[in-house]
C-alpha cells in the first residue's frame, strides 16, 4: 500500500505542474458541486477561528475569510502554500507549510476537504484534530463516498481484481466509517452527500465512459469495448431512472463532527 509520505511527493509534483494541467478533461469540462461552498452553508463563520488542513492553493480558506472567519491554511505541499500566498490574499488569512502536529493553537472549526482518505491512519488523524478544538468546536470533513451505484461498481473492481480505481486514495470511506469514528471520539455527527449526479446520474455515465477502460487497463484486465458499452447502456436504462436523492447517493460525503 502507498503511504502518505509518497503522496506528499505526488502533490508537490501536481502543484509544480499546475492543478489545471494535472486534472482530467472530465473534471475541467463538467461543472461539479463546490465542496467549499457546501461547507460554507453549514454555519455562520463570522469571527470564528478556523484551521484549514490540507488547504491546497487556498480556495476554501479565502472564501471563509471573506465570510468573516480568521483562517490559517496549512498544507504539506510547499508549492501549494507558495501559490496560496501569492494568489489568495486577505487580512484575515494566513498560510503555512507545516504539519498539524506542530500547531499549538486551538480553533473553533477545523476543516479538511478531501484529505482524510489520503492519510495513513484516518482515525488517528481525527483524534489529533480533536485535540486542537476549542470547547463546542467542530471538525468538518469531506471524503469521496462509495455507497452509491458508482461506488458499488468500482468497489467490486477493487476488491475482486485489485483494480486501481483512484490516483491517490489510500482508503475508501463511507458514512458507516464516519459514524463509527464519531462514536469512538465521543462526538456528535451529522452528514449528507453531494455530487448526486456523479454518484447516481448523468455525470456517472460520462465518468464511466472514460474511467472504466482506464481502470481495466491499469489492472491488466481484458478491455472489451462491447462489454463496456453494454454496461454503460444498462446503467443508463436502469440506474438513471431510479431515485438518486437518497442521503447516501452522492459521490462526496460532507461530515460535521461536534464536541459534546
Report the radius of gyration as a whole number of Å. Answer: 19 Å
Instruction: Describe the largest sheet.
Output: 7 strands, mixed
The class by helix and strand makeup works out as alpha/beta
CATH superfamily: Vaccinia Virus protein VP39
Q: Give me the strand/helix succession.
A: HHHHEHEHEEHEHHEHHHE
The proportion of residues forming helix, as a percent range, comes to 40-55%
Number of DSSP strands?
A: 7
CATH architecture tag: 3-Layer(aba) Sandwich
* Helical segment count: 12
Strand composition percent: 15-25%
**Morphology call:** elongated
At CATH level 3, the topology is Rossmann fold
Sequence stretches where pLDDT stays below 50 over 5 or more residues: 19-31
Record the SSE blueprint.
Elements: H1 4-17, H2 19-22, H3 25-29, H4 35-40, E1 49-53, H5 59-66, E2 70-74, H6 78-87, E3 93-96, E4 107-113, H7 122-131, E5 133-144, H8 149-161, H9 175-185, E6 187-194, H10 196-200, H11 202-218, H12 225-239, E7 252-259
From the structure above, extract its key features.
260 residues, alpha/beta, 12 helices, 45% helix
Give a summary of the structure in a few sentences.
The chain is of the alpha/beta class. 45% of the residues lie in helices and 19% in strands. A seven-stranded mixed beta sheet has the order 3-2-1-4-5-7-6, with helices on both faces.
What does this structure look like?
The structure is a single chain. The chain is elongated and about 55 Å long. The chain is of the alpha/beta class. Strand 4, helix 7 and strand 5 (133-144) form a beta-alpha-beta unit. The chain has a single domain, classed as Vaccinia Virus protein VP39 (Rossmann fold, 3-Layer(aba) Sandwich). The model is unreliable at 19-31 (pLDDT under 50). The chain is 45% helix and 19% strand. The chain has a seven-stranded mixed beta sheet with strand order 3-2-1-4-5-7-6, with helices on both faces. The protein contains twelve helices and seven strands.
Amino acid at each position: 500500500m502507498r503511504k502518505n509520505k509518497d503522496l506528499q511527493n505526488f502533490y508537490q509534483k501536481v502543484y509544480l505542474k499546475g492543478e489545471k494541467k494535472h486534472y482530467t478533461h472530465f473534471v475541467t469540462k463538467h461543472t461539479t458541486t463546490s465542496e467549499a461552498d457546501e461547507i460554507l452553508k453549514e454555519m455562520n463563520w463570522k469571527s470564528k477561528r478556523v484551521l484549514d488542513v490540507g488547504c491546497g492553493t487556498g480556495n476554501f480558506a479565502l472564501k471563509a475569510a471573506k465570510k468573516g472567519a480568521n483562517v490559517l491554511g496549512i498544507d504539506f505541499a510547499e508549492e501549494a502554500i507558495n501559490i496560496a500566498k501569492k494568489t489568495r490574499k486577505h487580512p484575515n488569512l494566513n498560510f503555512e507549510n507545516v504539519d498539524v502536529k506542530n500547531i499549538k493553537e486551538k480553533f473553533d472549526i477545523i476543516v479538511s476537504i478531501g484529505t482524510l482518505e489520503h492519510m495513513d491512519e484516518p482515525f488517528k488523524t481525527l483524534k489529533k484534530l480533536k485535540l486542537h478544538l476549542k470547547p463546542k468546536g467542530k471538525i468538518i470533513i469531506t471524503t469521496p463516498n462509495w455507497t452509491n451505484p458508482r461506488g458499488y461498481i468500482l468497489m467490486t473492481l477493487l476488491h475482486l481484481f485489485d483494480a486501481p480505481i483512484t490516483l491517490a486514495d489510500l482508503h475508501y470511506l463511507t458514512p458507516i466509517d464516519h459514524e463509527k469514528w464519531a462514536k469512538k471520539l465521543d462526538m456528535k455527527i451529522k452528514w449528507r452527500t453531494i455530487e448526486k449526479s456523479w454518484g447516481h446520474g448523468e455525470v456517472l455515465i460520462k465518468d464511466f465512459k472514460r474511467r472504466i477502460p482506464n481502470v481495466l487497463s491499469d489492472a491488466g484486465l481484458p478491455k472489451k469495448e462491447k462489454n463496456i458499452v453494454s454496461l454503460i447502456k444498462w446503467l443508463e436504462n436502469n440506474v438513471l431512472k431510479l431515485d438518486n436523492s437518497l442521503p447516501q447517493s452522492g459521490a462526496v460525503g460532507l461530515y460535521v463532527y461536534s464536541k459534546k
